[in-house]
Every structure is written in C-alpha cells, then in structure tokens.
Amino acid sequence: MNIKSIEWRNGAIKIIDQTKLPGVFGYIDIKDLKTLCKAIKELKVRGAPALGAAAGLGVYLGIKDSTAKDFSVFKKELNKVISYIGSSRPTAKNLFYGLERMRKAAESNKEKPVSLVKKILLSEAREIIEEDRASCRRIGSYGQKFIHSGDTILTICNAGILATVDYGTALGVLYSACEKGKKIKVYSCETRPLLQGARLTCWELNRKGIDVTLICDNMAATLMRQGKIDKVIAGADRIAANGDTANKIGTYNLAVLARFHKIPFYIAAPASTFDLRIHSGKEIPIEERKKEESTELFFAKPIAPKGVKVFSPAFDVTPDNLISAIITDKGVIRPPYIKNIRKILER
Ligand code: MRU
Predict the structure, then answer these.
(1) pLDDT-based confidence at residue 1 (cuts at 50, 70, 90)
(2) Best of 46, 201, 289 to mutate for ligand 1, by most ligand atoms within 8 A of CB?
(3) What is the pTM (predicted TM-score) of this model?
(4) At what angle do helices 71-86 and 93-107 cross, to 10 degrees?
(5) Cβ–ligand 1 contact at 163 (below 6 Å)
(6) Are 332 and 183 in the same domain?
(7) Dist. CA 309 → ligand 1 center (Å)
(8) Which residue, of 108, 137, 166, is where some domain finishes?
(9) 92 and 180: one domain?
C-alpha cells in the first residue's frame, strides 16, 4: 500500500517529517498555523503538489477555531491566514493554487453561515488532496508511454510520493511504467544542498523495489557521455505560459547536458503547477535558502571557511526550448509550448 505524505487526521495535519528521512520514517501532527509554516520553510513537507495540499489544509487549520459570526469578519481572518501561508515559500505555484482554491470556496459560499463555510473549506482541502492523487496517476499513465523496458532514467530532487500526496509526478511516470511490467534503472542526482535526491528519491525508489543508483550532481555529464542515460525526467515548481520551467536547482544543468548529448528531457507536472499569468520564466520568483544549508547542515564539521559568502537559489529555470515534452494530467504537451500549453490545459 502506498504511504500518504499528508492528510487531515484527528483535528491535525499529519505529515511525514521529510527532514528525518532516510534515517527515520515517521509522522508528525501539526495543530497550529505557525508550526505548519515552520514545517514548510524547513522542508518537513515539501514538493510542489504536497505544498498545494498543505496550503489547503493549512487554511482550514488557521480558520477552524474562528469565532466570527458574519462573513465579513471571517473573510478578514481568512485573508490573514492565506497571506501568512503564502509568505512561507515563493516558488511553487501549487501552494498559491491551493490558497486560491480555498479563497474562492469561501467567497462562493459567503451567504451561508460561517460554521458551514468552515465545513466547506475542509471539504475543499480534501478535494485538493483527492485531485492530486488522481492527477498524478493520470500523469503516470500518459508519461509511461515514453518509457521503454531496459531504459535507464536520470532524475533530480524528489518528485515522487513524498513531493505529492501519494504517487508522484516524475517518479509517478516511473511507477506507472513499472506497473506495466517495464524493467527500468534509475540514476538519482543527490541534489545539493538539501539532498532530496539522495535522502528521499533513493529511499522512495528502494522502498518500491526499483533499481536506483545515487550519483553526485557533477557526475551527470560523464554518465551521459558514456551512453548510460536514455531519458531525463524531472518535476516542476512553476511553469510559465511559454513553457519555461522552474524546478530544483540543477535541473537546468541537466537539460543543457541532455540537449548536448541528444537525450530526451521531460518535465512531469499537473495543471496546478502552470502559471499562465506569467509569460516567461524570468517572472518566476526564485527562493533563496540560508547559507548554513550549503556550508554545514549535513556535515560533521563546516565544509567552508566561517563567514564565506554563499549564494543558494533553491530553483532554476529551464528554458522551454530544452524541454522535449511536458507530461501533464491533461495530456502530453509538445512544442510550440506558447500555443500548445493553453490548448491542452483548456481540455
Ligand atoms: O525544495 P523542494 O524540495 O520543495 O523542491 C521540490 C522540487 O524541486 C520538485 O522537483 C518539484 O516540487 C516537483 S514535485 C512533484
């Protein structure tokens, strides 16, 4: 049975604490908004679709004890909760998609008693979760057609069960291929500095019995040159109207290398990751992480001189022309993206 990375259970948001993996697999209960936002910032819960689910449940968590009697007072409280959650991480569109869904659900039921609006908000958050479960499976089913038995696939970060509710986007494509009986091998980039590839993707693929080999991020070019990689597949945090795609820092490197070595490079993401209000990747806000994550977090001793300047963007943008296809829950989008993204997403 698949594990769930996030759910609403007994009056709390239940998440897997991903910072403890792979050493400890355990759940924590989040009972207040401040703890949720801290967990998001610290990447206890992470990955674009999981952040969308956290945003939905977080809004409910933040307003469930409101004593407001009329909607105008309730709305002010709701807006405060929404902007507080919105300030936790800037890049993943899904987080803002989740918040917007909750705002709209409240607005369109404003004539109803506040007590009922609260119940509607819990259902909406649960709906976001159920939709993610279904959409990841659709991505898997469209995407597995690109995967052939015997393929070796390179991936980065973690776009799997842990990054979604329970299946994954890029890794969902691989799970779906395996469910069809295809035999594959996977290389996982460690994904410096927070090691989502080493800690989470390797853990997840091991658990699923998929043949996975860990590489340091700077080894991808060599593997490609040696002909060891058939396909590259990654998830996404935000996709602009022209197809430019923000994903974990290092994804762009892989896309450039893949083009040079004539290897297909795929992005897998649900419709909720697209931001059609922005024309290109230049408009995507890129989160910067604190320097200690690069200099000491995973080391017994600091690995850089004290006080050294550090630049640590959490994401990069892969230009649309390096992406062979974007696999979504509405179908596969191929270039020219500027035309085909809208065409497929409007389905
Ligand atoms: O900083 P993270 O771990 O939240 O970054 C996650 C990624 O970059 C994932 O690849 C992306 O969110 C897609 S998850 C299905």
Answers:
(1) low
(2) 46
(3) 0.98
(4) 180
(5) yes
(6) yes
(7) 25
(8) 137
(9) no
Residues 49 and 176 in one domain: no
C-alpha to C-alpha distance for 54 and 217, rounded to whole angstroms: 29
Annotated catalytic residue: which of 132, 166, 237, 244?
237
Q: Which amino acid is at 277?
A: R
Average pLDDT over residues 23-51: 98
* Residue 45 token pair: 């819960």
Asked whether 217 and 196 are in contact (CB, 8 A), the reply is no
What is d(CA 346, CA 331) in angstroms, rounded to the nearest whole number?
11
% of residues, the chain, pLDDT over 70? 100
Co-location of 301 and 181 in the same domain: yes
CA separation (Å) from 48 to 5, 83, 104, 315, 336?
A: 12, 18, 20, 12, 25
Q: What would the mean pLDDT of 39-51 be, rounded to a whole number?
A: 98
